[in-house]
Amino acid sequence: MKIAKDTLSFILETSKSSAPREFAGMLSATRDVITEVVIVPGTESSEESAVMQLFMLPNIHTVGTVHSHPSANRRPSTEDLELFDRKGNYHIIVGAPYDMSSWTCYNNKGEPISLEVIDYEFAEDENW
Ligand code: ZN
Questions:
Q1: Is 22 noted as a catalytic residue in this protein?
Q2: What CATH number corresponds to the domain at position 85?
């Protein structure tokens, strides 16, 4: 699995602008590239409620989840691990300071996995 650089940038920027509130969303992919984030509305400011918002979503087609932590600690919590096990196989946790090196992708067991960042041409870009 890979992730579009623009999508990752969007995640990092949204995490940064939401801080200290947490940001949470679902990840959608086009073939083997994560290209879309569906933001969970009304994400509350505590770790537990950000995760609860994700739990309560219907099972729309998703490859995984993304949420931010208000600190530099990107280890999944117990609640995170339960979520990972139920909502797809790719789970990104973003931590402070929300730059290109402050995110980690985990599998549904909570083990860190690599996610290749690629330049992806979105369909909208074809009109240039
Ligand atoms: Zn968490």
A1: yes
A2: 3.40.140.10
- Ligand 1 centroid–CA 4 distance in Å is 22
Predicted TM-score of the model (pTM): 0.88
CA of 112 to the centre of ligand 1 (A): 14
Domain that holds residue 32: 2-118
Cα 31 to ligand 1 centre (Å): 27
Q: Cβ distance 63 to 82 under 8 Å?
A: no
Look at 1-5, 58-62, 77-81, 106-110 and tell me which has the smallest mean pLDDT.
58-62
Rounded CA-CA distance 19/33 in Å is 27
